[in-house]
Structure formats: structure tokens, C-alpha cells
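Bug #2210: C-alpha cell dump truncated for SIMPL domain-containing protein?
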Amino acid sequence: MTHAPLISVRGEAVLEVEPEIARLSVHVQSQERDRREALDRLVERNQAALELIRSYGDAIEKLETGGLSITPQLKYRRREGDIRAYQGTVWIRFTVTDFAVLGELVTRLGDLERAYVHGPDWGLRRDSEIYKQAARQAAGEAVERARSYAEALGARLTGLVELADEGLTSDTRAPAQPMALMAGYGAPAAVAEGAEPPSIDLEPATQIVRAAVEARFTATSPDLD
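Reproduced locally. Full output below:
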């Protein structure tokens, strides 16, 4: 019994694309001597942050509360239970799809009292067509490479034995430095009281999408003469 020759190859695709979404988070805080006052201030500031984010309508793809805490702050070197204040924190996470409003939204959030903004974290959607495109290109490269090997031996491909997905990942060309803004402790002198803060320019980080496959093909007998 004879076996057809096998050609094993690896196909890879690397795509550089613009991000589709930007993920951000906001920590809103309060600190008061009374627990109830700390909670009341936290509710007010949380509502103000949510209303601001929601005011951007369809530019916001996802909005959720990541967590809430009210923590007693103990006096320094005092017995347990001697509380000097209560600190409240709410963590808000949201996703922006319209980058045209991103700079304005970030600075307006950073201008809120006792608000800490973290982001943006650029990325692609989980079901992005870019991943499928990269996978198709990797498979096509595997076929072309196998065909080149076969032609070099005077043979031709006759069938596919196996195609295995080696992996599909996405990352940024260079890690984007997260931007953090702490607000509520005095506005810059250049910004008049009650005026809107200036919008900050944000440049989306290029996303690198990689796909790789391993494949085995059958081929006709080579012409080694």
C-alpha cells in the first residue's frame, strides 16, 4: 500500500488596523465625617457622572457600574473603631464608539468633583470582521506556501489532510499610556469658574491582529529527476 506525500506548512497573517472602540472607567468618590453624608454625596456624584456619559447618546455603546464601597477611615495610631471619616467609591465602566467626542467627554468627566478617569483602552469588538479577515489570509498563505513547495518538487496538491488554528490575538503596536485625571481639588487658573474644560486630543492606538494556522496537504509524487 502506498501513501501520498504530505506537505506540512504554517500560514500567518498580520494586520494593522484602527481601533473600533475605546474602554474607559471613572472612579467617583466622597469623604465625609458622617456615613450617611458620605453615601448621599456619593449618590449625587455618581448620578452626575452617569447623566454626563448618557448625554452622549449613541456614542456610548456600553455603560455599567463595576462596584461600590463605603469604607471607614480610622484615625492614625488610635484604637480600632475610632473613625475620622467615611470614604465612598463608585466604579463606572463604559465603552465609546465615536472617537470624535472622546476628548471632550474625558475632560468633562475629569472636571467633575472628586472624579478619577482612567483610559482610554483602545480595542476591537469581540465579533469584529477583522479577526475573520486575518484568519482567511492566514489560511490562504498556507495554501500558497504548500503549493510553492509542491511546484518546487514537480508535484501538485491533491487534498487537505488537516487545518489547525494556531491562535488569533490582538494587541497595540505600542502600549498606550493610560491617561488619569483627578478632579475636584481646584481648577487650573486658565479655566474660568463654571466654564467647560478644553477638549484633549486623543490619538487612537493602531491595533495589530495576528492569525496563524498549521496545515497538511497531500500531493502527487514529486519529480526528483
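Output looks complete on our side. Residues 1-19+126-175+201-225 form a domain with the Translation Initiation Factor IF3 fold (CATH 3.30.110.170). Marking as cannot-reproduce; reopen if the truncation happens again.
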